[in-house]
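I hope you will forgive my troubling you with a question about protein structure. The matter concerns a single protein, recorded as an amino acid sequence and a row of backbone structure tokens. Please examine both parts with care and let me know of anything in them that strikes you as inconsistent. Thank you for your consideration; the sequence and its tokens are set out here:
***
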Amino acid sequence: QGSLEKRRQVREQAQPLVSAALAGFEDLFGTAHPKFLHAMHTMGLLAAEAESHEEAANCFRTAYDGRMAHVDVGPDKHDTLRSAVAYGKALNELKRHADALAFIEEVEARAGRVLGGESPMTLIAAHVCALALAGVGRRPDACGLLRRVHGSRVMVLGERHQETLTTASDLGELLGKAQSTRLEARALLRVAAAAMAQTLGATHRLAELAQSRLEHVEDAIARGAGDEALGDDTGAEAGGEVVAVLLHIFVDHAERRRGVARAALPELAATAWEAGADALEALVPCEAAQHAEGTALLDVMLNEMRFERRGEPLNLNGLAHAHVRLERPVELRKK
């Protein structure tokens, strides 16, 4: 707690200073100057420290775009890559894993080309990429990439470096989600948690996180639990289904400039939700109590969306040109 309080005090002292510097650099040099962009990146760091991840993402993106465009900086310079990696981290914190993955893969490749595959910056980018992969449900790919990052960091930084231990903790968490790799996860997390407690202190947020992950894995082993859900922990439960509905709007060619398609979107959304609800209802357990609870939740979902179903074509200004129909009614695929 003392460490967290000290960091909060330092952040609160730094915030007005950096804000003043940012405003001063903008007045003196404009928003494209490297000094302004450096201050903007620093503002992002302070926002990330305060867990204001939306603000942090905006700051890092501004710094990155400015550095990419500056003639004396450009895409391959260290500062540009640093802002890019920070932006990818912020996207992951915001659970925008698909956006993070699309952005950071190219950054990782660029860092490897410019700095080398074992450089700290390239490894940070690869780490961010691995977390994005995990977030979109590609856990095997994420584990493979984190293994490579961890091995490189052990060789470059040493086994007890904070970055090495952080990688071990993240890898242990992912391995712990699969029953087949849970023992490996426990061994990895035991080492990471003990080393973090010794080097960073038992109350450090990273040490507490590693210990919490270790306890979760040990509990799963003791219960003989199966595999956990892929992707973001805030998403579907393990064993869930993905419902994919493909819908189609047809508008007569002669009427395509009258806003008919735009007006049809509410009906399109309503049809999609109702088709999804029908598919999900079929998956609700047949036991009476569970079925009643599941269908009640589906009713709440549809009522909250306030969608009304219309069987006839949309009629706009007396025209009946927009037809919403299910192209392929419902597809289900196992996760």
